[in-house]
Amino acid sequence: MITINKLIAGKISIPSPPAIAIRILDMIRKDDFTFKDLAAIMEADPALVAKILKLANSPYYSLSKKITSIETALSVLGSHAVKNIALSFVIMSDLSSAKDDLFDFDLFWRRAITSAVAAEIVAKRMGLRSQDNFVSALLQDIGVIVFHTSLPNEYGSVMKDNLAGQEPLHKIEERYFGFNHHELGACLLSSWNLPESIYHPILYQHCKIPIPEQYRKQVDVFRLSDCLSSIYHGSQCVDKIRKVTKLLDTQFDIRGEDVNELIDAVANQSISILASFDISPGEMRPFSQILQSANEELINLNTSYELLVMELRESKKKAEMLAGELQKANRKLHELAFRDGLTGLYNHRFFQEELDKELERSKRYEREFSLIIFDIDHFKKINDTYGHPVGDIVLSAISRTVEHAVRKADIVARYGGEEFAVILPETDFMGAKVVAERIRGDIERISLEENGTTIKVTVSVGFTSYRYTSKIQEKGPLISMADKALYTAKQSGRNAVCAMRLPGT
56, 111, 458, 504: which sits with the fewest CB atoms below 10 Å from its CB? Predict the structure, then answer.
């Protein structure tokens, strides 16, 4: 099991404490330090000196004349700003040295710097006097880098889960490791001997214990600063703006135009600071410009509104035509699925499904229905004498005759081979007898000519009726009873109608 202590103890690779950052902190802690002493420490790192001078001469500070001396820059910027910037430069350089195609260090620090700027702006607005807001906000997600560089495979799985958007990142980390990146980052900074005022607000970001009163406002500021940063360096911008607007209103009493001005200020100042860190701001631009672009798009949309309506109408017509064609195709497919290819009658599968439905309907609404089963007498002889093509003609002729002999609501199906079935909804025993006799008689009158020979056919018919008072609950006994009636009709000499009553009818 991976623990924070194992990571911090060095059993797994972690960033080493930046020595020059510790020296700067130690110097500033002294009551009698001078800017000359601080400049001497910084001059050991020429890159740091260059960045401090670049920042002092940037539009962020808008000084009237160019500063060329590090000591002068320190006296102009002040020890508080120098400490923040120096620590940030050194730590960022130390943790960005590794090359890793799977981790975007520029995006990480772009977002971290924007968060730090946002924290400074909000803290100043709220009157919070902590001198560590910038550094704490900058390093609040440093644990992410430690996780990634120390446990790349395991943390890759964490990031995949996070992309799904179903669970916050810190919850996923706790599920995998038992602790989150804020707890890990705070422990790392503690091991570097940084002040508690820097890492305690980070520790309490998602801590399971109550937040001490002295850090509560700072934690709220850092959470807001993270949201403000995500507006410019993340997806779902609209949702995040709504979230930020709500936080500013409910927790910081900032609303209306002040909200837009604050969000704009975060972008403007971040772009300037990012340049000092030699990090590209990417596509970052103030919120007001984003809104302006959206308004311009809206204007362009309005100018072509009529054309858009015409296109929509045409698209609607095409969609309706396609829907109609699809409906026809679906009906045809449905027919193909449930129709017998030779006779055009419903097939055995459809018959079975409809019989189930009719039985349920009859039981539910206390109605009657009947079932007829019949087959062609001596059909094998017809096939043997005239051939199967003639047999097919006979089957088709009988099918058309039966369809004309029954109602549209009745279901006529080819049960199999030369056997047919008819479901008669809302039909009692006597009614079924009338229909069965009509079917037998109409088929008997069929006369087909084939090569000068007249072909006559007859059928044997069996039927039964179902009444809701019957104790039968399934279709099996119903089919069996109609089939027995058919067998009786054949035994009695064929070309006959016989019936069998179900128990309880």
Answer: 504
Residue 320's contacts (CB-CB under 8 Å, 6 or more residues apart) are none
Say if CB 503 and CB 470 are below 8 A apart: yes
Helix, strand, coil percent content, the chain, rounded in steps of 5: 65, 10, 30
Helix/strand/coil for 504 = coil
* Residue 118 buriedness (CB in 10 A; 0-12 / 13-18 / 19+): buried
Q: Quickly list H helices, 133-236.
A: 133-138, 142-150, 152-163, 169-177, 181-191, 196-203, 213-232
Cα–Cα distance measured from residue 405 to residue 439, given in angstroms and rounded to the nearest whole number: 6
**Amino acid, res. 250:** T
Sequence letter at residue 59:
P
pLDDT at 310 over 70: no
Whether the CB-CB separation of 81 and 28 falls below 8 Å is answered with no
Question: Of residues 6 and 388, which shows the higher confidence score?
Answer: 388
pLDDT score, position 98: 54
Q: What are phi and psi of 34, to 5 degrees?
A: -120, 160
Residue 185, both tokens: 């980052």
Residue-wise pLDDT tens digits, 429-445 = 999 999 999 999 999 99
Name the pairing type of β-strands 459-466 and 497-499. Answer: parallel
How many whole angstroms separate alpha carbon 386 and alpha carbon 378? Answer: 13
Dist. CA 321–CA 237, nearest whole Å = 38
- Give 49-101 pLDDT, tens digit per residue: 777 787 777 776 666 678 888 877 777 777 667 667 777 777 776 666 555 66
| Amino acid 18: pLDDT | 64
Q: How far apart are the C-alpha atoms of 182 and 165, rounded to whole Å?
A: 19
Q: Please write the tens of the pLDDT for every residue from 448-472.
A: 988 888 999 999 999 999 988 888 8
* Dihedral angle over CA of 215, 217, 223, 224, nearest 10: -160
Long-range CB pairs of 39-45, under 8 A, 24+ apart, other chains included: 39/70, 39/71, 39/74, 42/70, 42/74, 42/86, 43/70, 44/20, 45/20, 45/90
Token representation of residue 89: 């430069």
- Taking all residues of the chain, what is their mean pLDDT, rounded to a whole number? 82
* Dihedral angle of Cα 381, 386, 388, 393, to the nearest 10 degrees: -100
Hey, CA dihedral for 217, 220, 226, 229, is it positive or negative?
negative
Tokens for 131? 């001198």
